[in-house]
Batch of 4 targets.
Target 1
Amino acid sequence: MYWNKKIETLKSGDLERLQTKRLKWSLNQALNIEFYRNLFREAGVSPDDIATLDDVTKLPFTHKADLRGGYPFGFCAVPMREVVRIHTTSGTTGKPTVVCYTRQDLGNWSELIARNMVMAGIGEDDIFQNSVNYGLFTGGLGFHYGAEEIGMTVIPSATGNTKRQIEMIEDFGVTVIHCTPSYALYLAEAAEEMGASLDTLKTGLFGAEPWSENMRRELESRLGVRAFDSYGLSEMYGPGVAFECPEHDGLHIWHDSYLVEIIDPKTGERLECGERGELVITPLVKEAMPIIRYRTGDITMLMEDGCACGRGQKIARITGRTDDMMVIRGINVFPSQIEHALLSLPGVGEQFMVYIDRIRHLDEMMIVVEIDRDVFSGELQDLARLQSEVAGAIRDALGIRTSVKLAEPGTLPRFEGKARRVVDRRGDL
Amino acid sequence: MQVWDPRIEMMPRDELLRLQYRLLKTLVYRLYSFSEFYRRRMKDVGVHPDDIRVLEDVQKLPFMYKHDLRDNYPDTIFTASREELVRYHVSSGTTGKPTVVGYTPNDLKNWTESIARSLTACGLGRGDVIQVSYGYGLFTGGLGLHYGAERIGATVLPTSVGNTERQIELMQDLHVTAIACTPSYLLHIGEVAEKMGISIRDDTDLQRGILGAEPWSDEMRKRIQDWLGIRAYDIYGTSEISGPMFTECAEQNGIHIWGDIALTEIIDPDTGESLAPGEKGELTMTVLQKEALPMIRYRIGDITTVDDDVCACGRSHPRIMRIMGRVDDMLIIRGINVFPSQIEHALLEIPEVGRHFQIIVDRKGVLDAMLVRVEVAAEAFSDKISDLMSIRKLVEHRLKTVLNIGVDVELVEPGTLPRFEGKSKKVIDRREL
Amino acid sequence: MEDAYIIKQISVFSENRPGRLAAIAGALKDGDVNIFAFSIAEADGFGVVRALVDAPEKAHRILTDQGFRVSYTEVIGVKMRDEPGGLYEIATVLGDAGINIEYAYAYSGRDAAVLILRVDHVRDAIKEILSRGGDLLEASAFT
């Protein structure tokens, strides 16, 4: 099953011609952005120098920090009147990254999601429960629009209220669910406790955090679904960039829309097929926010063999990050963000530790704060207030729920040199 | 003045009435022919589609109530097949099972068109940046405004609810010109902004507020407009009729109810008799073009009056005035509808507390706060404070799950809460609009 | 004159795990500080140990040196008649005056049972109790 068979199965010569044409268009689109005009000038290149796809290596990389530096609209290549949507993603500290979309961008994005869903065997008669966050997070609205494009029934259940989520699956005969893989396991367990069989479910679309083949086996057996891995990032619209086909052996990345390179994250040099490195993407059809050679920070490789489904070259499942970014409950979090949020709180100071654990399949964050002399009034209420302030600061900054433990002075580790106050104890997935 | 769909919105009144009659007649025939539920309802009161000969004959049709949806959970009342549905929205019911609303592609289109007309009537259009701070997901506020704002070509910033400081930063940095949220949340934004050293009036580009999901007053409008330097417009709708759909126009004199979308009646809640324009009564709507879930004479429960005169803006559709109250005991807390019966129902499932309760609603600053006082069951009493705290947390969690809104719970001594069966004593509402 | 009846209680932050009370009590013992009365209030994962001692400043210094977080709280000590109705009298006086008792604990003194009270308006409470013939401990009684 294909949503757009002609494009999805484009033969290599035709694909490269299309990519080259779109790359040139993208580079010219990028010239509407001052950052790129300067960058090209400093690097001594111009879009005219790009004759073949390999010439893209002449162009400099774009890093997340560059996007953040352009806050708010430094990377918007079209007049604001053309922008119909804004999403934001949290940065490593402070200001977020702003992603703008034109109407055409929304159409492109929906088409990519529609391709993915149809590739996973989903069609207009399916009933789709979209159990990820809506709003500024791209996962919710992205899949919502793609599913609507296909014409299936969409239940915008968003996150939370697991009991209600399970009731809806049962009562509406939901056939497809989209959520994080860890939430799916939690849901499976809760359904077992409620005695709900969830037997209408047949397909699970799981993304926003890394997951393993072990987890696939568990998800498939406990939920009774075929599990598909979904990959994307807000800078590239959101989810939809790459997706598994029923072969479940790597993810098809949409080469007509994204030019893919794998590089050595240290040297920046291009790697061959089969060599693991950092995924670098140049979007080919993005109007509002064209980016050149974006360093995603995700580690994968290009796979050599063609796929039985007839679609283009795949990337392997993501195996890690080049930086210290963590994914907690589907939310990208940098340790620096957590520290930033806590250091700004009076009453916390520098003495805190953050532990991330996986308890009953869900990521849980625990913050231990040493009680500072200045904040101890002797009253229980004041201590309880501190607990809720710390939890509130993390919720506001990251959208993550935490538990807060208060500790006596001197009980937390002291650091010489660079403090490592955020400890991920989740281990292997 | 921009008008989204002048042909419909400015339609001469007699033409509009003829259109409404045609739509009503078609709807009634369709329902009678194809829906078991509606045919039985009409037969019960001895009315046949042929009896509908003029628009006023709508009064011959039976009423529908919220419990009709609950009793037919999830979708046996729907008049479209599951294959035709493209969306479900779900809101909490009065007890137990929620209320489910289904949509066909045309239903979504009509809903979106209605909001597009309304937002345009508020002066919004392409070039505006609209921050949608209603909840997204199953609640109709977020996605409804989102689709409407996208339809008119504005830039949509889907902030959804929560994280007020971030909302204010984005409002300022992304040059937001309009916000859609509850009026009390906008006041909260104003206060938090001041604490951050930001004046909404002087330091942001905000010009308009599309405010609804809870009742508010002209005094509150004046306060918001004067303080924040914006124009504040009332928006109305409920998920049973699709979601938020109708707003005031620039005249700020009543909410235009698009007549081709809904037929409005004001009735005496006790006798069910239709009241004349200007008379106060219960708002009742017949949704004329909905395919999946057409509501006939749906008793919304809100008390208001209708103004039938053509508005100074030239739009010929009738207007309803501000909502003055409820015919039942429904509370609106931070834009979420809460029935005391939901709380009663939830408490019955928690053996650690008794079945008596008291609700105290207040404004903390400008935001609604709801406190539920419950009695600890004798068997559950423990002298460990941590045990009592976990009972409180349990009740808070269960109520949050049922009501979709965070509430505070206070444990009180057994036997201290009022035992009246009367509903009024169970709720103490200290809010002033 | 009410000030003479304001007693300095020390409050110590403690994690809710074995050995913490022993650590606090041990430190006071080594510093030769006598504890007249104490109570433990529990909360979510931690507690506050409250104590009346013969040398609050010294206790504060010793515990702080040991790394504890300590603070002072103003409380009053009411002598209770050791017979039915003793507590009722005191509670009525405060209740009638609209003074709220935040927490309380008691100890048996040399000549009477003593109720330690933390109230929302300390000076008003002292005035009320004295004017209604109640018997308050002076802070100097502990030093």
Target 2
Amino acid sequence: MMNFNILRVQFTHSMRTFGIRCLPSFQNKPVLITTHHFIKANTRSITRLSNNNAHKILFRRQYNTSERSRKSIVGRGKTEERSSLTIGQKVVGAAKVSANISIIVLGIGVFGVIIYFVLKELFSPSGSTKVFNEALEKIRSNPECQKILGTPIKGHGGSSSSGRRRHRLVRFQEVINTDGTQHKLMRIYLEGSLIRGTALLDMTKNNKGIWVTKYLVVSIPEYNKRIFIEYNDDINKENKDDEKNDKENRI
Amino acid sequence: MSRYDFNRDPCPWVILNDTGGAFAMGAIGGGIWHFVKGAKNSPKGERIIGAITAVKARSPVLGGNFAVWGGLFSTFDCALKGIRQKEDPWNLIASGFLTGGFLAARGGIGAATRSACFGACVLAIIEGVTFATGRFTSPPPVMQVPDIRPQSPNPQ
């Protein structure tokens, strides 16, 4: 028994000198595990045999851990019963749950807005991608443009002056005209095999609230030339025709 | 250089630029990430050494992964620009799709498809974020819209 006591003292001593870090490696050794079991069985006899501080520490540690685990079991039982909570605890719990739910809802909302913008810009007929593709097709199929610019015509939106935008994507520039009407401008930079040019597209709302192209014009600055690909003098013309037809039908 | 695209490299060179930019982004971001992670996972008293070791070991790897992604993305983007002769968001989404699929090709068709869809979704979301920020940050300015008219009343 005395031999064993010396061993214990050395063990605790080494634990102290090496610090907490060494504990797991000690515990993994089978020899020490057996001593640990022995202590569990005979803690009382050891404390009686020697009044060493190390044993007290060991004993206390073991006692504390068992106490802690018992406490945690009781605590878990308490939290499961909602009726036994105080009002303050209930308020705190409700606030936590509602905060979590609001964060989730906010995230879903932001994601929804982003998805809306993606779908709108990519697929809707008045979205910039579709308008750009249609306008570029019109320019490419125009014989005068083909002749002057040279046949493979590249189209892109220019890089911004600060150079921050990495991709030269085409975007609408939404402006309000000085007479108060909404306009969407689109500038397409064209690169033919012979010469460069820019196309300007102006869209505005007609009196039915539909976006209508007012003009699509290709300007070639080096020849000081403008090619009109599309020009609507009166954006409400189609609507007037419809109204005329309606009147004729009524008559 | 022409006056239309200053500040920007033409297409084959932009791949190098993008690869380097992606490497720097991955290395810096990975450096911060692995510094914190290394400090958290090292024992007390050796936190700084552990953090530096983790950064030295891991952040160049992450930077390399980013560089592969960015370089391949830029390559596909340039190829699509050359084929389609125009630049629109579909180029970006398609090159994200192709990059994701290409990098996961060794995992089989299923893994490649999943990764490709993930890449396309990431690029689509980035596009959506740029559209949304462009919409919400700048209100439409009031200006005189250029009123261009043809000389003859009826063109063509």
Target 3
Amino acid sequence: MEKILQGIAASNGISIAKAFRLENAELTVLKESISDVSAEIDRLQIALSHSRSELTTIQKQTQEKFSDQEAAIFSAHLLVLDDPELRAAITDMIQTQHVNAEYAVQEAANLYVSIFEAMDDPYMRERAADIRDVTKRILSHLLGVSIQTPEDITQEVVIIAEDLTPSHTVQLNPEQIKGFVTDIGGPTSHSAILARTLEIPAVVGSKTAMATIQNGELIIVDGESGKIIVNPDAETLVAYQKKQQTFAEQKAEWQLLAHEPTITLDGHRVELAGNIGTPDDVESVLKNGGETIGLFRTEFLYMEKEQFPTEDEQFEAYKSVLKQMNGSATVVRTLDIGGDKELSYLQIPHEANPFLGLRAIRLCLDYEEMFRTQLRALLRASIYGNLRIMFPMITTIDEFRQAKEIFLDVKQQLISEKVEVNETIQLGIMVETPAVAILADVFAKEVDFFSIGSNDLIQYTMAADRMNENVSYLYQPYNPSILRFIKLIIDAAHKEGKAVGMCGEMARDETAIPILLAMGLDEFSMSASSILRARSQIKNLSKTALESQIDHILSLSTADEVLQFIKSLDN
Amino acid sequence: MIKKQFVFSNGEGLHARPAAQLVAVATPFKSELSLEYKEKKVNLKSILGVMSLGVAAGSTITLIADGDDEKEAMNKLEELLRSEGAED
């Protein structure tokens, strides 16, 4: 029977494939007494050897597909699996207490888990998770339950999961993953951003997908409307296959615009830029007609690793992006962690309100050595292209001045070491706090450029945590309060002759684009997959005509009124 | 039996990477190899044992090797610890 679920559209496109549930399975272990000790130990040995070959395969695949860095976690898992003390403790329990292997495995592992969890060092505490992972794998073999990870997928599927974590995302192979559906998350959650980067249709926040969808059921993911259709009728299937084809055709048509400039009907030119997370993403930006890089999120370089990336590792990454961009502007955002993004190896004290806490530039100024290493790597790479550096989450002028001072100091140091650096690197800021928006005229005098981080600007203006679904209705990009802020920011920058970009979700939003264009936004930066659609839209707009509507738009009362008004312009 | 003391001066203490390296070096030897720290003694071939000690940076650890290839084992372990910045 056909069933339809509604979620939040996160990445455009239609995918039709079988469901693959990414389980967070709770494996239930019961204590049983056994009589045949040697048979029980045999069961254990078989489970251990299956786990071993499974882990070896995953480790090898990860090494081939990614790098030794990503494979390291599985080497650690193998060491735990082979641990002689752990094995001795398990066998000992089976022999002396006559308990089943499952129970012995769980008890022996729990002992270590509790030791690690009690440690002061948060890094060591997290190692408890490694032990749990390995235990789960052994138990799954003993219980005959299959646990699945993205690497296990060998055919085309739609992934159904509660949520996708950054560590899952390293393991996703876009050739097999045709789409995904998650129970939680909003349009700016990690999984949603990832889906757009990989150009995979996705629906997030479906709430009930895990409870409804079984492995192997045929699924249609409509990344435009946010619908998920389970076991579609023949009729629905045909309709969607047609829709899928139309989408592919439209994509091909947009592809013709890949090498064209973005000029409105009345001859106004804007810049369409790409957002990237790794050097590998540049290819997709260029293929999709991105003219520049408006946002290089450097935190992925840090999140993929088990320890801080070295200066040389960072240098190689920045150099690679700059060289691929061949002289076109490349805006690199310095490390933006804290909030919802954590580093396993960096101990940040727990905070009650992480989005209002020690994150982004605040953290970088606090961990100055880490910040200096990044700036050194950036400066060394600067000779390979047109580098612009952007500081995230600036709230006060002092923060910007302090960051700039460190930058100049690092630069001076490199020059005294006879290292060649680019003399004309622009320094800009993300505008994402109301404090900066309201003081934009003052900031515009000191910084070289602005980039509006709309996701955070909305979150902080509306005082609504964007990870909290209960207040997600307050994520209102068209709310006149947000639009007035943006107007204020753009006008202030232009008065000082500075350029303004936007690198948040709003920059690719079909309703927001005409408004932003009319306000004079210079650069729209978005995920690669949105660039051509935006170009085809902008080419059919007239800036002058829209400008005459701006005063009216800004005088409206609600986000919905703005939405209705923009819709009415289409007709 | 050979006993040797080291000061583990690596900046982060005995974290996953150095611990894994120690275990990897220790495992192939036949001798019984152990690590003593704060009056606790663990099997050096056990990653969980070694990491569960929570050896902090700058602390003193004792390695004990006992068996046919104890000399060779101690040499290899010493080599590794020195490359990680430990001193005796």
Target 4
Amino acid sequence: MKLELKNISKNFHGVKALQNVDFQLQENSIHALLGENGAGKSTLVKILCGVYQPDSGIINLNNKQQSIPDPSASLSLGISAIHQESVMFDELSVTENVFIGNHITKSNGLVDWGLMQDKTNQLLKDLEANIEPNEKIKDLSIAQRHIVQISRSLIHDADIVIMDEPTASLSQKEINELYTIIRNLKKQNKSIIFISHKLDEVIEVCDEFTVLRDGELIKSDSIQNTNKDQLITYMAGREVNQIFPKNNVTIENEIFEVRNLFKKTQFKDINFNLRKKEILGFYGLVGSGRTEIMKSIFGITKLDEGEILFKDQKILIRKPSDAIDQGIVYLSEERQQLGMTGLMSVKDNINMAVMDRNSNFYVMNTLKEIKNSAAMQEKLNIKVSYWSQLTQSLSGGNQQKTVIAKWLSTKPEVLILDEPTKGIDVRSKSAVHEFMGELVEEGMSIMMISSELPEILGMCDRVVVMYKGLIKDILNVKEASSEQIVKLASGES
Amino acid sequence: MKKILLNRDFILFSIILIILIAVGFANPLFVTPKSISDVLTDTSILIILALSQMIVILIRAIDLSVASNLALSGMLISLLSTVHPELPVYYFIALSCVIGTILGVLNGISIAILKVPFIVTTLGTLSIYRGLIYFVSDGKQVYSNEFSEDFLALIHVKFLSLSFLFWLAVLVFIVIYILLNHTRFGRNLYSLGGNPDAAKYIGINENKYIIMAYSLSGFFAGLCGYLWVARYSVASTQIAIGFELTVISACVVGGISVMGGVGTVLGCVLGALLIGLIRNALPAVDISQFWQLAISGAIILLAIIINTKTEQRKEKTIMVEN
């Protein structure tokens, strides 16, 4: 046994993130750690990395009890984590990122750049990666960044490598290359903890799995003894078809259309239409241009060419308020940065976009504001503890709903949602989905960017598949297979 | 080649050269070796302080207390020298550095341990350190005739017809260059400023680095305390007042990002040189006293705009151009 966690529990302000979780990692094995967002995977990883301390439970490494008081202890025990992009140093070179916190020094105490350069070169060559050691991280693709992170863990001589969603935004070709690297790591006697939402790849690559749900251990077994449907049931705790409550509505006439949208270096030849009461999905890899198109439609960035039609009329959108006046709103992906002001109350956030409607000659009508906010809170079931609670102290799900309420206050006809359920717990997620269904029933049309294929397949009527700034195809969801969509999105067909 | 042309340090260097040539046309006397050597001497303290400020800015902080620290350290050793004129000058320099370092450590402790935001801490110590000068000096000045000869002599030593101040700035440049580029400490400052969360994951102790950075800033402020007093032969409550802003502008002009983790040592020096050049050149080209401050501000702003705009040209590309 390489690593064994016994009875690990961790609470955050009364919320049980992990409850008596056991986890066993065999030597020489690739172990999938599965669960929905908020299931406790990242808490577990952070405990292994020494970022969090468990409230109770023990950690055995190589059959010896260990404590991991801080990240450097974790590194020196041979545990290395490959997180998503956030742990790279964009402005520093590849070499430096590989050796970060572990610079080789000469006998005189100075950093030995030459030696580090050579070692990095050798490592990258061994991994068959075409990366220049001198390049800055900010100039690399996401796949290349992962390889740099893998090189980093090799330099640290880690024998447990944790990979947190390493394939989330890679193309199929890059994913296959990564698999080769992972299998090579296994051959070199490393144990790997592999976190991924893509169950097909989990089944293909991993030897064992552990499923967490709501902070509890649900199942741990060998991959051979399970299948995809079973894994989904373990993760969701219910049958799959219940997850996306898309109501059946009759789709009406076309309401919105774009023709030949073009923005230099970002996207071109963008043509699609949206019909009343329709949910149109936008699927593609992170960075395929979906958000950029929506930002241009909403007037945040300028289009180079192309026209936008709304109810058969050509409209000109120069700035977001033009779009809002027309009844088109955009709910951004980074809700905390762009969608809400954390230091303002829920009421003020909800009314932020409709100040002109709630005021008389530039003086705010507080009564109107309270009425609107109360109605929205009721409708969306936003839970606040007290009247003037600041938005930043709400849970992720309630924050998301506050942003939605803000935009619904403008009474839009076309709603653009950019990754509306990213990073929120399962229950809030399904509430958002249910609500989208209601809005469509009431006559709204929705465009939804999502990187989660099940969400696209469950919620949308049609899906626009994008790859590197181009629309590869627009498919009817009922007739499309997930394989087909994934292939299109990775530019293979 | 294109890479060199778009390099910030190179652009900055070109701007300095262009200003120098332009001023040379307006007033040929300004570009004589003697006059340029005077500009360099005059800018040396700014260079030293900008370099030490850079260390702090690299980790996403700012030290607003440097000028007050400089003035307080300078006053304390001046007062001592009036009482003990017999002590050797090296003693005063070392003492000034020690006082400066202690004042810097206090900043660091307040920020790292007491968690008072850096802007609040150093804004506070800016006033406290300045206020202490009144306390220790009773508001009086120490005049040139009160210093010992030894105390003032060192600053006038010349080597290869360039001043002691200039050579000291060169030495500090080399030391900080090596520190930031060739030691673990320096590289960790870059990572800490570039991505503090990630730096924690690789086991960099943030508090230790904050305290170290502020003590270095304090050390050099202390050193400059001696330099300033000796150069102008006067210590008073008013010396170097507002100079922290000049120091920070030098860093910003030099391309040290206030967002942390970005900037070169050479750029920092060039930034200080540009500001020193403008301050010295404007009087030389017959511009009215009343306009000088506004014009120098405008030139600095313009230099920053040119410098950053050239860099930004590299845009994110999504589409494959066919």
